[in-house]
Amino acid sequence: MEKTERPRVKVCCIASLDEALLAVRYGASALGLVSAMPSGPGVIDEAAIAPIAAAVPPPVARFLLTSRQDVRAIAEQKRRTGVDTMQICDRLIDGTYDELRVAAPGVRIVQVVHVTGPEALEEAAAVAPHVDAILLDSGDQRLAVKQLGGTGRRHDWAISLRIREAIDVPMFLAGGLNAWNVARAVQDVGPFALDVCSGVRTDGALDEAKLSSFMAAVERA
Fold first, then answer.
1. Which of 207, 182, 184 lies closest to 194 in space, CA to CA?
2. Taking CA 123 as the corner, what is the angle to CA 175 and CA 221, rounded to the nearest 5 degrees?
């Protein structure tokens, strides 16, 4: 896919309505709400996710991060939480993306591909025709306790660039982004959007100063 001029920003691990509105005020195009995960930061109860999602003003996208791997469970999560986008953080193994679209009408599907090596290119290319976007992150599904995001680690951006050039859907770049390296990420990878969690947080809470610096760095890039 062609390189974009100025990437959009998704602020992830939103824990409250105050955090959501702060992110929107600084120009976030999307917010990430994290449901149950085997590890990692930002998890909140679905009962807390629904009112946040309902209060987010359009056109800001509301992503639910899910570790579920079956269509029925993912569709039920979308219904309970009222989000518009499902970010599938693990591989879908029970059902298909087409079946998910039938089970959850109007859903947008973002599939996470964890860049652990060159094999991520083949995985992304195979999945891309069936989803609305690919999100590249730095987790590891091979571990005994899976890491499905929020690691604060960078992966190999050279692989990210190859993936971006090979697919025909928007690509989000996540993993270890912060105000000091995001300009380089934009220049080296040219993603459609950037996804940030730990890089704009202090002791787990969204930090306005870090968020401001991050957004300013994206604007300059």
1. 182
2. 35
- pLDDT per residue as tens digits for the range 189-209: 999 999 999 999 999 999 999
- Domains of the chain, start order: 8-220 (3.20.20.70)
Mind listing the pLDDT tens digit for each residue in 109-132? 999 999 999 999 999 999 999 999
Q: Which has the closest alpha carbon to 69: 88, 83, 45?
A: 88
Instruction: Look at the alpha carbons of 23, 167, 117, 184 in this order and tell me if their dihedral is positive or negative.
Output: negative
Cα–Cα–Cα angle for 59, 62, 65, nearest 5°?
Answer: 160
Structure tokens at 70: 């079956």
Helix (H/G/I), strand (E/B), else coil: 150: coil
Rounded to the nearest 5 degrees, what angle is found at the Cα of 48, between the Cα atoms of 16 and 32?
Answer: 60
Is pTM, for the whole model, over 0.90?
Answer: yes
Q: Is the peptide bond before 59 cis (omega within 30 degrees of 0)?
A: yes
